[in-house]
Design goal:
Protein name: Isoamylase
Number of helices: 15
Structural class: alpha/beta
GO molecular function: amylo-alpha-1,6-glucosidase activity; isoamylase activity
Oligomer: single chain
CATH architecture of the domain at 594-705: Sandwich
Strand content: 15-25%
Shape: elongated
Largest sheet: 8 strands, parallel, barrel
CATH superfamily of the domain at 594-705: Golgi alpha-mannosidase II
Radius of gyration: 27 Å
Family: Belongs to the glycosyl hydrolase 13 family.
InterPro entries: GH, GH13_cat_dom, Glyco_hydro_13_N, Glyco_hydro_b, Glycogen_debranch_GlgX, Ig-like_fold, Ig_E-set, ISOA1-3-like_C
Strand order of the largest sheet: 14-15-18-19-20-21-22-23
CATH topology of the domain at 594-705: Immunoglobulin-like
Domain Glycosyl hydrolase family 13 catalytic: 164-577
């Protein structure tokens, strides 16, 4: 077949041009040139603006000829560009009428919504030139990364153990022990893969890693004068571009390769990568926010607007993306496909996902087209889709999120129940539901236990150490008079607010942390833990550290020595979960014996075997899992018995008897001092009294029958 060359047909000054391809959107390579394509349904004209990298002024501006527009898409091929050394943007002209929702202003250079690389914030925390006419600059991506034989891992959802982390916080502290240039970067995570392997997690969930502006709403701390940043990054500038400031090579524009190298190395070590994606709002904020991209390209299409032209604010961040507009659905779908295909990402967690199910006027849709499209998309078919099933507008959908058989949910009800139970403040009936994978929320809708992403702590709120150390939030360092952050923490300080030298209180706190980890790892569903909880990380009672680039957020690795008992306990519990498929069932328990073992798949007990106390004031609960029912009876496993006592005195538990030839062994007992609080799976000692045991005050015991 003869090769067909693409030749210029038009010129503009020194630039050689040709009619472009309207699809795909963005800047893509074609023979001899670059195809630029951008959508706007209300613009009257569009101009491509070209800069040399970092140059304050453009070296060329090329209006799209009218004949290059197809429908509402402006597309053009520009030949002979030095694509490695240029940045590009657009000027859009059109109506400027606030009440009608139009913000066109051809004096502004706009970022391409499909930009694959964005410059302008190349090195974290370096103040930009505020007089720059074009702050966030689109660059042209070219893919020459060698993935070798890498592909997404496709770990079964019920087998996942998720570790939520912030890229910069994970290794920025000098105690991380890695070379200084790698601290706080994708390369730093790669350096710490041996640690993640030792801990035993098999998925990391990264807080936003695409381009955002750390200087958005930056301000001095009124107390210390230290700069407060947009640190967490939940304010998107570009959905397709990795954050340059998170790359050790960001100043060289190599953030794409560095992130891909991190993903590739994690996959080699059987660790999946889940991205926290924010499609509910953008960095353009409300009516007083900056015009960066979407607002100037086609404001009325991309955002939910009131009849008066103001922004609906279901995100709590100033604006709300109009996600069920077909154009916006398209950009969300294109974005996720891009990350899955080009970066081999294994899954996505959707921030304030309930917004994605609202119509253009904010009403919840019964059959949201975006959620349905994502659930059935062929490219995303093996990706995990995880919803934060609520939003800032009051829509709470835990247990009722439109799932289409595909979506998992951050189970906020699990978090609340475990926290309350640990301080003896909820019923054992509620706890039983959460430990089983919340069948009361999911089974009736035909949704598996792995729908429930079980978590006790996350980036938003207290750490596990702070949950047992503070009764109230202490957010004064945020400069908002302690008014920000949630007041509903369901925490208990164990008798003293904050850090203390009291040995009894510190021992109780460690015990409560271990109780939380133990219950998390024996619950059906998918456990998710917060970075640093395994070593007793504290944020000193601040439950909303969104603005701090300091030790409030950075993980202090010296805690591994200080709180090594918590680390060893967590590591053992993770390995115990991985060793026992009975803890990772694919479907809900039936509370009956359907394999002929003589025992139900799950049975409930109290201080008396076979006689659970379901009363409102009960402070103890136990359950036994029959290993012959593991994975619906398709695999064999040991028996597992879990007893937890949240009462302030020790209680004697009568233990159910095993089939002949089997004995109970002690895997964990949080009342015992380290290292006898847990054992490496397979090395558990035999329980001395096979008929019963004393479970200490505020303690949890896990036995394995084998």
């Amino acid at each position: 077949m003869q090769r067909i060359d693409v030749h210029p047909t038009h010129t503009h000054g020194k630039f050689k041009l040709r009619r472009g391809n309207p699809a795909p959107f963005g800047a893509t390579f074609v023979p001899g040139g670059v195809n630029f394509s951008i959508f706007s349904s209300h613009a009257t004209s569009c101009t491509l603006v070209l800069f040399k990298k970092h140059a304050p002024e453009p070296f060329g501006e090329i209006p799209f000829p009218d004949e290059f527009r197809i429908g509402n898409v402006y597309s053009m091929i520009v030949f002979d560009l030095d694509y490695e050394n240029i940045e590009y943007g657009y000027r859009m002209d059109g109506p400027n009428n606030f009440q009608e929702g139009h913000w066109f202003d051809k004096s502004k250079v706009l970022l391409d919504p499909y930009a694959k690389i964005i410059g302008g914030r190349d090195v974290w925390g370096t103040p930009p030139d505020w007089d720059d006419m074009y702050h966030h600059r689109a660059r042209i991506a070219f893919d020459d990364f060698d993935w070798e034989d890498d592909r997404p891992l496709e770990i079964a959802p019920e087998d996942q153990i998720i570790y939520e982390m912030h890229v910069r916080s994970f290794t920025k502290h000098e105690s991380s022990g890695i070379k200084e240039s790698h601290r706080g970067t994708f390369a730093g995570i790669r350096d710490k893969i041996p640690y993640l392997k030792e801990l035993g997690v098999n998925a990391i969930e990264l807080m936003p890693v695409y381009e955002f502006d750390e200087f958005e709403n930056s301000r001095p701390n009124p107390t210390t004068g230290e700069t407060l940043y947009n640190y967490w990054g939940y304010s998107t500038v570009g959905f397709f571009a990795p954050k340059a400031g998170y790359a050790a090579t960001g100043k060289f524009g190599m953030q794409v390769d560095e992130l891909k190298a991190m993903v590739k190395e994690l996959h080699k070590n059987d660790i999946e990568v889940i991205l926290d994606v924010v499609f509910n709002h953008t960095a353009e904020g409300n009516e007083r926010g900056p015009t960066i991209s979407f607002r100037g390209v086609d404001n009325k299409t991309y955002y939910m607007l009131t009849p008066e032209g103001y922004y609906y604010n279901f995100s709590g961040c100033g604006n709300t993306l109009n996600c069920n507009n077909p154009i916006v659905r398209g950009i969300v779908l294109d974005c996720l496909r891009y990350w899955a295909a080009e970066y081999h990402i294994d899954g996505f967690r959707f921030d304030l996902a309930s917004i994605l199910g609202r119509d253009p006027w904010g009403a919840p849709l019964s059959n949201p087209p975006l959620l349905e499209t994502l659930a059935f998309d062929p490219i995303l078919a093996k990706c995990k889709l995880i919803a934060e099933a609520w939003d800032a507008g009051g829509l709470y959908q835990v247990g009722s999120f439109p799932a289409y058989g595909r979506w998992g949910e951050w189970n906020g009800k699990y978090r609340d129940a475990i926290r309350k139970f640990l301080k003896a403040d909820t019923t054992v009936g509620e706890m039983a539901q959460r430990l089983q994978g919340s069948p009361d929320l999911y089974e009736g809708a035909g949704r598996a236990p792995a729908t429930s992403i079980n978590f006790i702590t996350a980036h938003d709120g207290f750490t596990l150490m702070d949950m047992v150390s503070y009764n109230g939030k202490h957010n004064e360092a945020n400069g908002e008079n302690n008014n920000d952050g949630s007041n509903d923490n369901d925490s208990w300080n164990c008798g003293w607010e904050g850090e203390t030298d009291n040995e009894y209180i510190n021992a109780l706190r460690h015990r409560q942390i271990k109780n939380a980890i133990a219950l998390l790892m024996v619950s059906q569903g998918v456990p998710m833990m917060l970075m640093g909880d395994e070593m007793g990380r504290t944020k000193y009672g601040n439950n909303n550290t969104y603005c701090h680039d300091n030790e409030l957020n950075w993980l202090n690795w010296d805690l591994l020595k200080k709180n090594n008992d918590i680390f060893q306990f967590t590591k053992n519990c993770i390995n115990f979960r991985k060793a026992h498929p009975v803890l990772r069932n694919t479907w809900h328990f039936q509370n009956r014996d359907y394999v002929g073992s003589g025992y139900a798949d799950i049975s409930w007990h109290g201080t008396q075997a076979w006689n659970a106390d379901w009363s409102e004031d009960a402070k103890a609960i136990a359950f036994m899992l029959c290993g012959e029912h593991a994975k619906g009876g398709t695999v064999e496993d040991n028996y597992v018995y879990v007893a937890t006592n949240v009462y302030w005195d020790a209680l004697w538990f009568e233990i159910p008897q095993l089939p002949p030839g089997l004995q109970w062994h002690v895997f964990a007992n949080t009342a015992m001092p380290s290292p006898e609080d847990s054992w490496t799976p397979g090395s558990e000692p035999v329980l001395q009294d096979q008929y019963g045991m004393l479970v200490g005050d505020r303690s949890t015991v896990i036995l394995v029958g084998k």
